[in-house]
Write a structure and sequence with these properties.
74% of the residues lie in helices and 0% in strands. It has 98 residues and is mainly alpha-helical.
Length: 98
C-alpha cells in the first residue's frame, strides 16, 4: 500500500512551499519568500523548543519524542533554513547588481 500523498510531502525534505518559484527574479518574490521562511523557522523552532521541554516534564514520552518528533522537526528546520538561504542569496545577488 502506498503512503497517502500528504505523508509523501511531509517526508520530502527538498520540497518547496506551495506557490514558491525559485526561477523568479522579482524582488517582491524574494522579499516575500524571505519573510515566509523566516516566520516558518521561528514557528518550527518554537515547536522544537516546546517538544524538548516536554522531555523533562513527562519522562514516559522521551523515547517517542526523541525517536520521532525531534528528528522530524530538526530535519524540517534544515529544509526551511536551506530555503531561506536560497532567497537570501537571491537578495544579495540583486543588491550586488545595483
Amino acid at each position: 500500500m502506498k503512503a497517502p500523498e500528504f505523508i509523501q510531502r511531509i517526508v520530502d525534505f527538498d520540497r518547496l512551499m506551495e506557490g514558491e518559484n525559485r526561477d523568479s527574479t522579482d524582488p517582491d518574490d524574494t522579499e516575500h519568500w524571505c519573510a515566509v521562511y523566516t516566520e516558518m523557522i521561528r514557528f518550527k523552532e518554537g515547536l522544537l523548543g516546546q517538544t524538548q521541554r516536554e522531555l523533562e516534564k513527562v519522562p514516559d514520552m522521551r523515547q517517542e519524542l526523541r525517536g520521532n518528533d525531534i528528528p522530524f522537526l530538526e530535519a524540517e528546520l534544515r529544509r526551511l533554513r536551506s530555503g531561506l538561504a536560497f532567497w537570501e542569496a537571491r537578495r544579495a545577488e540583486r543588491k550586488k547588481r545595483r
